[in-house]
Design a protein that fits this description.
Elements: H1 17-28, H2 48-61, H3 73-79, H4 84-96, E1 100-103, E2 107-110, H5 115-139, H6 142-160, H7 164-181, H8 185-204, H9 214-230, H10 233-257
Antiparallel strand pairs: 1-2
């Protein structure tokens, strides 16, 4: 298995068949990915570069490629049944999004999750949503508000069944739906990018943080919904800031007691 420092750790030898594939997957960092049944040739409207980019990006956001894991281009190309060129291009794109970093004497590595990166994520979310929810409250029509109500009700049901992954997916849809009501496509695109970074953070620290604050977060969602309906802009902005700052405080407290080792 490739560690964050890029060293190799082996146990045993002479693996064959499925064991050999598992060993190779560990080396590439794709050890938890299922076999990918759809190749670019089976999807004629998807280029190899798009396929590789989407596969790696999804694995990083789901923490199947964990923070600090080394990305070995030759091995990834073999695993994804492509040449090294689409892999290099995909890694460059992922680096531009802050999901991959290049480290001296190590190479391309999945970006770490640190206190500074978590702070940046929630600071950006707070700023974007302060703008988007204000505009949403000013512009919202009954149909748009009804869609928000349906999402919040679905989130309540997910929590009642302790389906936290379902709740998290609905949470993302709720925040995007509020921004969609603002009618600002550029802002919506930026929020999607920020929420992708939150997705990685919440998966990585789920049991330590998110599992303990879903009820509070859900009550804040209901407050936002009520304030959008009432067009109470001042209270809505206060709730949005409280929502993001409270989440940041929870993750920061966890990181203070569970520090993340730097990549070396």
């Amino acid at each position: 298995m490739i560690t964050a420092s890029g060293s190799t750790r082996r146990s045993g030898s002479g693996v064959t068949g499925r064991s050999a594939r598992t060993s190779r997957n560990r080396k590439t960092g794709l050890r938890d990915l299922p076999d990918l049944p759809v190749t670019p040739s089976q999807r004629p409207h998807v280029t190899k570069q798009q396929y590789v980019y989407a596969s790696l990006r999804d694995a990083i956001l789901r923490c199947e490629l964990g923070p600090g894991e080394r990305l070995i281009i030759d091995d990834l190309a073999h695993r994804l049944d492509t040449s090294i060129i689409p892999v290099r291009e995909a890694i460059r794109l992922l680096e531009s999004e802050g999901l991959v970093v290049n480290i001296a004497h190590v190479g391309a590595t999945v970006a770490p999750i640190s206190r500074s990166s978590v702070t940046e994520t929630f600071t950006v979310l707070e700023g974007l949503e302060s703008v988007s929810t204000r505009s949403a409250a000013q512009r919202a029509e009954p149909a748009g508000i009804a869609s928000l109500e349906a999402l919040v009700d679905a989130m309540d049901r997910a929590l009642a069944r302790s389906h936290h992954d379902e709740w998290a997916a609905l949470n993302t849809r709720f925040h995007l739906a509020m921004t969609a009501l603002a009618g600002m496509p550029m802002l919506e695109q930026m929020l999607r990018r920020a929420l992708d970074h939150w997705e990685r953070v919440r998966r990585y620290f789920f049991s330590g943080v998110l599992a303990h604050r879903t009820e509070l977060a859900q009550s804040e969602h209901r407050m936002m919904l009520a304030q959008i309906k009432a067009r109470d802009l001042a209270e809505l902005e206060r709730t949005v800031r409280l929502h993001n700052q409270g989440a940041l405080a929870a993750y920061a407290e966890y990181l203070d007691s569970h520090p993340v080792e730097p990549i070396s």
